[in-house]
Amino acid sequence: MKHKEARSKRGILEATIEMLAVNSYSSLTIEAVASQAGVGKSTIYRWWNNKARLVLDAFLMTAESGFEFDGNRPVQDNFRQQLEALARILNSPIGKSTLTIVTENDEIAEDFYNLFLITKRNTAKQALQAAIDKGEVKPAVNLDVALDLLYGPIYFQILIYKKIPDEDYINDLLIHVMNGIAAAAN
After folding, report:
1. Residues 90 and 17 in one domain
2. Interatomic CA distance for residues 70 and 25, integer angstroms
3. pLDDT tens digits, one per residue of 42-73
4. What residues does 182 pair with on adjacent strands?
5. Under DSSP, is residue 137 helix (H, G, I), strand (E, B) or coil?
6. I need a surface site. Which of 26, 53, 91, 93 has the fewest CB within 10 A?
C-alpha cells in the first residue's frame, strides 16, 4: 500500500510540474492536476490542503538533485555548479511559480526558507568550511557574509531585475567574491 501511495504522490507532483510548464500558477487548478495525474481531487487534498503547498512540494522534489558539493573539486568550481543550478531551478516554471507563492504567502515563505533555503545554505556553509580547512579560503572569512555575497545576487537578478543570470554573470560573480575570500597563494 505504501508503494502505491508513494507512486500516487510522485505522479501528482510530476503532473503539477508538467502543468506549470504550460500554464501559469494562477490558472493551475487542483481539478486539472487530479485529471492529469489520474486521481481524484480528494486524493490530492488528503496530502495537500491547497495548491500553494502542492506547488512547494513539487518544487522541493525538483530541487532535490543538482545541489551536491564535491569535496574533491575546487571551491570555485563547486559554487559555479551551485549557482548555475540555482539559476536554472528558479528560472524553471516550477521555480517561478514557487517564487510567486513565496512572495505572496508568509506561511509558504517560511516553509520555503526552512525546507529549501536553510538546508542548502547549511550544506554550502559546510563546503566553505571545508575550503577553509583545505587552505582555499581565508580562515577569517565570515561564512554567512560570503554566502550572502555568492547567492544574494542570483536571487536579486531573478526577483528584482527579472533576469536569469547567465554563465558570464556567474563567472564574474565568482571571480569577484573569490578574489575577496581566497587564501593567499604560497
Report:
1. no
2. 35
3. 999 999 999 999 999 999 999 987 678 888 99
4. 137
5. strand
6. 26
- pLDDT digit string, tens, across residues 146-160: 999 999 999 999 989
C-beta atoms surrounding 106 within 10 Å: 9
The Cα-based distances of 64 to 59, 60, 110, 156, 180 in angstroms read 9, 6, 18, 22, 30
Q: Which domain holds residue 94?
A: 63-181
Buried b (16+ CB within 10 A) or exposed e, 4-31: eeeebbebbbebbbbbbeeeebeebebe
Single-letter amino acid, residue 67: F
SS3 182: strand
Confidence of residue 10 (pLDDT cuts 50, 70, 90): very high
Query: Does 186 fall in a domain?
Result: no
CATH number of the domain enclosing 47: 1.10.10.60
Residues 20 and 71 in one domain: no
As for how many domains the chain has, the answer is 2
- Residue 139, classified by CB atoms within 10 Å of its CB into exposed (0-12), middle (13-18) or buried (19+), is exposed
User: 136, exposed or middle or buried, with CB in 10 Å at 0-12, 13-18, 19+?
Assistant: middle
pTM (global) more than 0.85 = yes
3-class DSSP state of 163: coil
